[in-house]
Amino acid sequence: MAKAKPAAKKTVKTTLWKREQGWDKLSAAELRNLEKFCREYMAFLSAAKTERLAHDLCLELAQKAGFRDLADVLQAGDSLRPGDKVYRSWREKTLVLMEIGSEPMESGLTMVGAHIDAPRLDAKSYPLYQDDSLALLDTHYYGGIKKYQWVAMPLALHGVVIRRDGVKVVINIGEDPSDPVFTITDLLPHLGADQAQKPLGKAFSGEALNVLVGSRPVDKKVDDKNVGDKVKLRVLQLLQEKYGIEEEDFASAELEIVPAGPARDLGLDRSMVLGYGQDDRVCAYSAVRALLESRGIPRRTRMAVVCDKEEIGSYGATGMDSRLIENTVAELVALTAPGAGNLAVRRALENSRMLSADVCALHDPGYGDVSSPNNMAKINCGIGLCKYTGSRGKSGASDASAEFMAEVRRIFNDAGVHWQTCELGKVDVGGGGTIALYLARYGMDVVDCGVGLLSMHAPWEVAGKLDIYMAFKAYQAFFEAK
């Protein structure tokens, strides 16, 4: 009896997963859409120099798209139905946009959340002083900055002042080409030998980041011989003439010093964007646009959140460590299912899913000693999907589940989104966090998902245009997913 021939071995085919740029994979039409979106984003970024300004610009987009103030709905005693679009503006710094779905709120929401605050310098409560013949603003830095990056560059002054009479005055000096700008002086190299020997972290102190705002004394016609600080007095006179501000009004002011000037195309090929505050306004703008342009009445209620205070730990009334989202969902439950109660709110939060839309660090070949090239995002290779952040042993991380990573991966692949996984550098080198853990505490699925940056937290940050467009495309796909 003949022996049976052994079965032929099947050839197993597999492919390598490459992290590569996606320019040649886009159609001509999509490349045009990419350029158009990035131009509109750059206009937003140039104007959104503070969290208040970013909030106002996002709110304007929502109102033009037909979103109604949730406060008006409550005051009118109306209910909410599938397809209704509402917003909640919180203290002019945090904005929540919502599109009501066809399913009960208890089934959960589809959420994308980003932050609109950025590292900067804040004027102190009693900021204006004179030293020798110079008038300066005393500042306190906000968020994680490298102090040396803020000296010897043009700066602008933005913010609000509530005057003694209760009038709110908006300040914007340094952005218009006809405006003056401000700066922080640096030591000339001829006298900087001792400074050059110090570590970067000690060569420039936070207390020394004082902004130069004037050097000319008051006019002799109005000179008061009893006033010693004549340069400071002139600055106060100019502020009084233009804004009606007195020195005491600084006590009820929020004044922010930021880099002056608009966002610009970067590179001879114009493939990148250079601008201030891309962490995290690039994700915030993309998330808002994605919700406004999502199609159809959703099955699950859609929510886009752009919030304040992430750069200092998300604390305070306008940060994600507050009860803002919980209270907002409670309002939605009450307006869509009257009498449902607190358990319905808990279920709605627990059954939600969220993309924590925050930027990630790109691999920079100039600093390869702290990079993990195989596990860091690379420019123009797509939006970064970061399973966990935190530091060292994942401390402070919201570690997304494999199941949710698979769901997000499927959504992106089906929508033709270019994406990549990423981490924040080598283990034990550093670390960071996002708003993810403040939403994950409700039991919902959350993963960090955002645009990669070079020079993150510097006055001028770099983002790839393909990555910016893919953020919009990714968030829209997430909102529209069944």
What does this molecule look like?
- The structure is a single chain.
- The chain is α/β, with parallel strands linked by helices and 482 residues long.
- Helices cover 28% and strands 23% of the residues.
- It contains twelve helices and 22 strands.
- Strands 1-2-3-13-4-14-20-16-18 form a nine-stranded mixed beta sheet, with helices on both faces.
- A hairpin with a 5-residue loop joins β7 and β8.
- α2 packs parallel to α7, α7 crosses α12 and α8 crosses α9.
- The termini are far apart.
- The mean pLDDT is 92.
CATH overall fold name of the largest domain: Aminopeptidase
* Separate helix tally: 12
- Rounded mean pLDDT score: 92
Spatial strand sequence of the major β-sheet: 1-2-3-13-4-14-20-16-18
Q: What top-tier CATH class of the largest domain fits best?
A: Alpha Beta
From the helix content, strand content and strand pairing, which structural class follows? alpha/beta
Largest sheet: 9 strands, mixed
* Count of domain modules: 2
User: Can you tell me the CATH superfamily of the largest domain?
Assistant: Zn peptidases
Distance between the termini: 59 Å
Tell me the number of strands: 22
Describe what is shown at a glance.
With 482 residues, the chain is an alpha/beta fold. The protein has 12 helices and 22 strands.
